[in-house]
């Protein structure tokens, strides 16, 4: 029912296209075909919309997108905006609709709801707007819409063996997921659980959702620790989940007793890794997502050629390899030496 209502909202949103979502500042670009009309160096206006703003991961996506816009041949104006919650489907739909109605040449975005946003992509393309997806795509994913993302399944598998070995291949494990039902969540949690079954002496005693919220992650982890005082390890599936779980472990005075392996690599997560609160982190390459997403949009607009998406890579970060130049380039990217 929820998705049916959202689709109805999407169909009606043309009449509401002038409404401003999330404070977006949009300039007219001439109907979505300006890049093609301008040839190889004509002016292009792009809108880049993450799943949410205010997170370290998305800040790095923004840096990569800005870098690509800066290095592109000709004039490329990039606008960046998003909702403040990774669960705000309606807010993102309104924001994307606003950009489409304003006539940007290209829309580079990370989908919150794959079904609803498939209709957003369809409408954008009907108006001549080039679409590229980063981090998360849509269902269906059009063949002419490239997706630059992490192979979530392959990346998650990198976390299982280190966690299992850290607890001697036996003990109790809790899983903190973030948004059950979303593809990114399922592609991280399900492969972890499946692969962990290879260790018959390891038991998953709790699976809880943080709803991508630090405070919720803190609360559910505290509850898990109360119910399972002999817990050995925690797998947390995104940044807020990791940070909330880490704080709960600190508060319970169990740093060193409970192994935490999680996703993403924000500055706070890295700090906790160095302090020994977190054992390992599965890091993506958000800078590359933003960079390649904008590059693809510019190329499609300027040449009309199809561009293939790609896996932007993942890394398992521990105290042993954190100073490696490749890892440092991913953790602290810059446009002069981008982690590509």
Identify the strand order in the major beta sheet.
2-1-3-4-5-11
Q: Provide a count of the helices.
A: 12
Uncertain segments are 1-38
- Could you say what the CATH topology of the largest domain is called? Rossmann fold
Question: Can you tell me the CATH superfamily of the largest domain?
Answer: Response regulator
Q: Compute the separation of the termini in Å.
A: 42 Å
What amount of the residues lies in strands?
15-25%
Pairing-aware structural class of the strands and helices? alpha/beta
The domain count comes to: 2
Give the strand tally.
12
Proper CATH architecture of the largest domain: 3-Layer(aba) Sandwich
Major beta sheet summary: 6 strands, parallel
Backbone CA Rg = 21 Å
Please give the CATH class of the largest domain.
Alpha Beta
Range of helix content: 40-55%
The sequence of SSEs as H and E is: HHEHEHEHEEHEHEHEHEHEHEEH
Shape: elongated
Give the overall average pLDDT. 89
């Amino acid at each position: 029912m929820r998705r049916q209502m959202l689709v109805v909202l999407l169909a009606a949103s043309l009449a509401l296209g002038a409404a401003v979502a999330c404070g977006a500042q949009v300039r007219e670009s001439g109907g979505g075909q300006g890049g093609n009309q301008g040839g190889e160096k004509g002016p292009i206006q792009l809108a880049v919309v993450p799943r949410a703003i205010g997170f370290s991961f998305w800040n790095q996506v923004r840096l990569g997108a800005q870098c690509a816009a800066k290095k592109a041949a000709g004039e490329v104006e990039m606008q960046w905006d998003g909702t403040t919650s990774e669960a705000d489907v309606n807010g993102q739909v309104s924001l994307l609709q606003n950009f489409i109605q304003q006539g940007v040449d290209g829309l580079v975005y990370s989908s919150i709801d794959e079904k609803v946003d498939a209709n957003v992509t369809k409408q954008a393309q009907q108006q001549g707007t080039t679409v590229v997806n980063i981090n998360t795509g849509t269902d269906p994913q059009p063949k002419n819409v490239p997706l630059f993302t992490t192979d979530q399944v392959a990346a998650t598998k990198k976390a299982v063996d280190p966690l299992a070995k850290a607890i001697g291949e036996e003990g109790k494990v809790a899983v903190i997921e973030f948004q059950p039902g979303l593809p990114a969540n399922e592609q991280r949690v399900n492969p972890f659980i499946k692969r962990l079954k290879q260790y018959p002496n390891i038991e998953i005693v709790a699976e809880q959702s943080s709803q991508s919220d630090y405070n919720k992650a803190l609360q559910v982890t505290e509850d898990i620790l109360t119910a399972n005082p002999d817990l050995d390890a925690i797998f947390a599936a995104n940044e807020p989940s990791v940070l909330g779980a880490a704080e709960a472990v600190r508060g319970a005075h169990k740093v060193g007793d409970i192994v935490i392996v999680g996703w993403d690599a924000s500055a706070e997560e890295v700090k906790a890794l160095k302090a020994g609160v977190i054992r390992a982190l599965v890091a993506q390459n958000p800078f590359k997502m933003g960079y390649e997403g904008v590059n693809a949009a510019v190329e499609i607009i300027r040449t009309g050629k199809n561009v293939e998406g790609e896996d932007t890579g993942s890394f398992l970060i521990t105290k042993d390899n954190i100073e490696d130049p490749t890892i440092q380039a991913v953790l602290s990217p810059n446009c002069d030496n981008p982690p590509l």
